[in-house]
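Reviewer 2 asked us to include a model.

Predict the structure of this chain.
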Amino acid sequence: MSTADSPSQTAQPLSRTDALPTRWTAANGAMASGRFRLYVSYACPWSHRVLIARALNKLDDVVDLVNVEPEMDVIGWRLEGGHLADSYRFYAPHYAGKATVPLMVEVATGQFVSNDSADLMRMLGTLIRGSGERLFPAAHAAACDDWNDDVQINVNKRVYQFGFAAANEQKIIKTRALMETFLRLDHSLAQRRYLVTDDHPLEPDWRLLTTLARYELAYRPFMLSPGAIPLAAFTNLARFFADLLSVPGISATYRPDEITTHYAARLRDLAPDR
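Predicted model (structure tokens):
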């Protein structure tokens, strides 16, 4: 986003209230080049979901990217010449929620599409070009929903349980629960190449990837207890991770340096004297 898009370069932190409503209707109509703008952080697992869907559905020409800086400040995510909060105010002056990534807007109208990662993943992975088969095929919808819930609760959110400043006892609790889930997933992946099918990865697989991609870089060293087991010890889970990263277009969505920078900075900000 250029500085001209933003009415203020001295943004104040946004208050946290209800999230923006999702606007599915913005995805209707012609898929013109540069129609949408997607604000992401390559460090953020929720953004990573949407980046994957954009890559798999080959929407680079339709959905332009703005990558925020990996380090945040007291206002939040930073952009060149300002903050993501400025973009929220520009596109939704009455919005009083938190300025989060991912965020997608329709450029010409200035309309919010959504700032919900699950909605955007579904939209970009299935709806915009009407593929219906790439990430959420009707034949596997029920299984995808079940696995999505499982992965969201027991993996994606588990690593953030108790927050960044978790006490040692809390880290032990969440680490033990996560290791139990990893073992269960490893057993499942011994029976099937992916979570739902043997044919190709679907939504739950990519949701799982975003946590696995940060596990050794950030979660195990910074947010879990010493009981966290290396990913390589889970043979099938490690194979699954490598398989997904090798899918054409996916390696470009994965920036380990930005992940490491972001999480190290978050922990440093919590304990600046360490």
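The radius of gyration is 19 Å. The helical segments are 45-56, 84-91, 117-127, 141-156, 168-191, 203-223, 235-245, 256-270. We have added this to the supplementary material.
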